[in-house]
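PROTOCOL LOG
Step 1. Enter all chains and additional molecules of the complex.
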Amino acid sequence: MRGHMSRYPLQCATCAVREQAVCAALTEAERGELMRIGEHRTLERGDALIDAGEDNYACATLISGALKISAIDRDGTERIVALVHPAGFVGELFTPTAHHHVTALTDSLVCLFPRKPYEKLVDAYPHMAHALLRRSALDLAETRSIIDLIGRRGSRERVAGLLLVFARAAACDPGGVAMRFDMPLTRGEIAGLLGLTIETVSRRLTDFSRESIIKKEGARGVKILDAPKLEELVR
Amino acid sequence: MRGHMSRYPLQCATCAVREQAVCAALTEAERGELMRIGEHRTLERGDALIDAGEDNYACATLISGALKISAIDRDGTERIVALVHPAGFVGELFTPTAHHHVTALTDSLVCLFPRKPYEKLVDAYPHMAHALLRRSALDLAETRSIIDLIGRRGSRERVAGLLLVFARAAACDPGGVAMRFDMPLTRGEIAGLLGLTIETVSRRLTDFSRESIIKKEGARGVKILDAPKLEELVR
DNA sequence: CGTATTATTGATTCGTGTCAATCGACGTGG
DNA sequence: CCACGTCGATTGACACGAATCAATAATACG
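Step 2. Run joint prediction.
Step 3. Record the structure below.
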């Protein structure tokens, strides 16, 4: 764990996700309370934010970067159960111990809160519960869309689906599709997410490349050449 | 759609899930409001409660029976993304249209609320948002455990995992495992949920039977003979 | 009792996992 | 600057498991 996580006091006024995150719905006073208990923290790729089994973990809002939520079965295989994008919230409230690992996929900045005080605020301020509920509904929908991905039969369809997930996440405008982006996951992580092997992921990617559906730019970079074809594979 | 759905006024006082459902956290006054807008409805197996694409759908608390939440891709394949057990809540709040179908797996009884008035209550009463948030956290955890199920490599492991899900759902005490139960899903539905085919599900089930891990009692009934073995397959 | 639906079983094909070798990028130290 | 080691990605040969196709059996239902 080479992580050199750095901490800073909160600066809500200049926050990039100020409008979309949970705290957007809060009053000035409530946000003030949050600022008192929270702090900014930077994470490098690979840094753990929460470990499964921890009994007194934290929760956080992601400001920039990307996180993964995963479980490790005892044979060592990692199962990714969710990806977290900026403005997303992580941390299981109201449970004694964490069930999943939360890890940075890229260098990231989070707004970190100790769980207990945070829960107290949720209890005290209706706005917080309400805002978290909306966020939670989004998370649920997103998690179900991952089931949709994994449930697909062929490896082609799964990889195509994930490419679109990345493309949508990388798009500036919500609802749009980025034509060029870097995949935040290694082949191994992609394999873990899709329930495939590294080799199969690699093969499908080169297949797509040969069919001119995408263009590979280094190991991580992808340019989408034939978006309709991808959509068709997924739909 | 042969469904003969029947409606009745709410009878909270004698409700079986009164203590665990969302409404458990409410005051008498708040529950009174709910009773005003809600009604009981009985569903037969196969009845649709919500259809994807509906613009003015309802939400509901399941009192008894079982529901499935699913999507249908346009090639007609059904993808089940969640199972709902008594005290569970269905309905996507704060979204204009429903993304998923909700269907009864067995004869069921639900507490049904029109969405708009329900959302109004959530806005008005902090307790509601808070209670829904807790429920939502449970749903999220359960949905992620389904990902864990589907992501498993072999068909053996997946079927074993689902058997345990059923066994736990059928247990009277939470946390326990029922030794004998009826599977609420057809082979086709199981296949859809696990990303397998009907034939494979059938084969694994007969495998387990031959290995004396389970005993099949008719098409739906299952008696668990070797629970540790099942746990081992999943762990 | 007969028909429709659902489940089982078998034979075969196809796709993905597995094992293994190679390549490429990157960082380190000689 | 180049040799080397490490790590991730790619590619190939092969085996195994699940899908597919097809026939039969069991169950539900009128």
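Step 4. Note key features.
The mean pLDDT of chain A is 88.
Helices of chain A lie at 28-37, 115-124, 126-151, 155-170, 187-194, 198-210, 227-234.
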